[in-house]
Specification:
Layout: E1 2-7, H1 14-26, E2 29-35, H2 48-58, E3 65-70, H3 74-80, E4 85-90, H4 93-110, E5 113-118, H5 128-136, H6 147-156, H7 158-167
Parallel strand pairs: 1-2, 1-4, 2-3, 4-5
Helix pairs in contact: 2-6, 6-7
């Protein structure tokens, strides 16, 4: 069975990667999909192309994982492709409440099932938003994101990291 792991991945974190690696052991094929939402243009730190490039590098060690993007409803993407299951990662109860509503909606409008994978406990505090916040101040991020994400974040905030190194 094939699955889709969808998100903004702005950027991918070690929590995302943990869920993805575990999903890759459960499903025959997993496609990481980045939604392109024209209404959110300019609201992401990384462009769609940058996020796809980071994901390709981060997932290179997983032979049954592919990377793609789509626009529109995830259930429509799944209808066009050979995927039967949506994979979603959960960090906390607050994630579950939100994701449960989306899972019910996707089943109702597209007949698609969702499988939840709990992120490892030691990643439960990590979110893309928090990582971007720490990086924006030149803070340490290496333990929260894969190396490709860390390099991309440091490049985006190179002025902050330069100031941090000079003041140390």
């Amino acid at each position: 069975m094939n699955a889709v792991f969808s998100g903004s991945f702005d950027p991918i974190t070690n929590g995302h990667l943990d869920v993805l690696e575990r999903a890759s052991r459960i499903f025959d094929q997993v496609t990481v999909t980045v939604m392109h939402n024209a209404r959110k243009s300019g609201k992401h730190l990384f462009t769609l192309e940058e996020r796809l490039a980071i994901l390709r590098e981060v997932t290179a060690h997983l032979p049954n994982v592919g990377v793609d993007s789509f626009e529109g409803l995830l259930v429509d993407y799944m209808r066009r492709s050979d995927h039967g299951i949506i994979v979603r990662g959960l960090r906390a109860v607050s994630d579950y409440e939100y994701e449960l509503q989306i899972a019910h909606l996707n089943r109702e409008i597209g007949g698609v099932e969702t499988v939840f994978i709990m992120a490892a406990t030691h990643w439960s505090y990590v979110s893309s938003s928090m990582v971007k916040e720490v990086a924006s101040y030149g803070g340490p991020i290496d333990n929260m994101v894969p190396p490709a994400s860390a390099r991309a974040l440091i490049d985006k905030f190179s002025d902050r990291y330069g100031q941090r190194i000079q003041s140390s």
